[in-house]
Write a structure and sequence with these properties.
3-stranded mixed beta sheet; alpha+beta; 3-stranded antiparallel beta sheet; 153 residues
């Protein structure tokens, strides 16, 4: 494993343990050259999942796209990197457990919004405003009203 800090190829495993309900292995590594430590995760490679976009085009599933959207939504919110990583893992587990080779972006987007709503309501509204393409303030306020309505019920 290449060191993310100095690029050296000599790293050693310091600790290994199961992660994500035994769905992956978490490894703590240390670079033999610079001495810095970092964490890697080893997961079972699955068949490539294709995502069906709104225009019916297809592209391979890309975790980094979900991560970028969630990180942007959580900017300056009290949400840790670990919480974001767990959230993405949960979404991935749900999407992959569907057993389909192709999944519409709508399903993935709805799962992201469902998880974000439970994690942080401000991040949820930020994500929803982009994902649902709010056209005006009224649409934005309607979504906030629905969110508040759920809390009061």
């Amino acid at each position: 494993m290449k060191c993310p800090y100095c690029g050296a190829e000599d790293t050693k495993v310091i600790d290994s343990r199961p992660a994500d309900d035994n769905a992956s292995i978490r490894r703590r590594r240390q670079c033999e050259t610079c001495g810095k430590r970092f964490t890697t995760y080893e997961k079972l490679e699955t068949l490539p999942l294709m995502v069906i976009k709104k225009d019916n085009s297809r592209e391979p599933y890309d975790r980094s796209k979900i991560e970028a959207g969630i990180v942007t939504s959580c900017h300056k919110r009290p949400v840790s990197v670990e919480q974001i990583s767990r959230l993405i893992d949960e979404i991935e587990n749900e999407v992959f457990s569907l057993g389909d080779k192709e999944v519409p972006t709508k399903i993935i987007g709805e799962k992201v919004m469902e998880k974000l709503r439970l994690l942080d309501e401000v991040a949820y509204v930020r994500f929803a405003s982009v994902y649902r393409e709010f056209k005006d303030v009224k649409t934005f306020m309607d979504e906030i009203g629905r969110l508040l309505g759920r809390k009061n019920v």
